[in-house]
Amino acid sequence: MYTRLLPTPARSIFLFGPRGTGKSTWIRSRFPDAVSYDLLDTGEALRLSKEPQALYRELAALPPHSWAVIDEVQKVPQLLDEVHRLMESRRLRFVLSGSSARKLRRGGVNLLAGRAVTKSMMPLVSAEMASDLDVARILPFGALPMAVTEADPKDYLRTYAETYLMQEVQAEALTRNLGAFARFLEVAARQNAQMTNASSIARDVGVNRRTVQSHFEILTDTLLGYWLPPWRLKSANKQVRQSKFYFFDSGVARALTGRLPYPPTDQELGPLAETFILNELRAYLAYSALDYKLHFWRSYDGAEVDVLCETAAGFVAVEVKASSRWEKRFNRGLHRVREDLGKGRTVCYGVYLGERQALWDDIRVLPMVTFLKRLWGGEIIRCGLTQT
User: Does the global pTM surpass 0.85?
Assistant: First the structure.
């Protein structure tokens, strides 16, 4: 079992994340004595949905500041009124976990008025795997805990993609046409890490553009994917406006495309490496409670940088290549973004699958594992422009 980096909270928490990321395991390890309600248990969910006040009666006798857990809280959102009462009158603390905040946000339910912080559980990250990190395996099979620990993760990922995702969508009644949604998932996964053209996807899937936009909302609401917007200066009118879409895990993305039985091609490796590094950056910012936003940068004439992070000290630009050799042409976008945003305010990194560090003019080229160690050691984002 890997030790997770998400810190133990001192106050009530909404903990969201896709199924299989390890939320329940983390909760059991951090709150072993907490009274727990699992709303994946149909009988329990039905009981509490019929009589939400039962939660108050069953927890009111706990000592003040005790912890209680409600897993998959979105299945019975009316329980949040009782949670609110228990927080106020009995000073109890709660872990409220789930794989989707969609029903809570859109249902007008009690979100506790800031009495619970919101955190996300990600797949395993490199700092949690430490010496067990195997980049050659992570890129094609991802970092869901079961995918990392299984001897052969293909069956698990295939089941996750084919069964869980459909069941999740069906259970939440997020769409009526599951066949079209399944086709959408495959097309969207094949365009992972690319600028998204909803009209093109709609043609491929055989639905209208509005349906495609709705399907992307399902993926973001259930935390299965996210948008990476382009960086745009207010004064710039010649930069791209389309966002890129990324799945939360490279193994799940490959499972959705049906590519698990095959070694990743050179065309696949680039987006897989980009997805992996971007997810590591997202997890680092989330677990470190840094509110910096991530973007990509692209000029009107096609110069591009995979990830751009504006920090308190300036900008960190990262270009990712699934190559064992770093080539001069990879530097084009990094040079351009540094000129655009200011040489004294921008630090540039090249990340690749080779073994040697290098310095190309003002670009620090690092092997992927070295970059990740420095990221989680605080040298990439926190130190910003101050590092040497």
Answer: yes
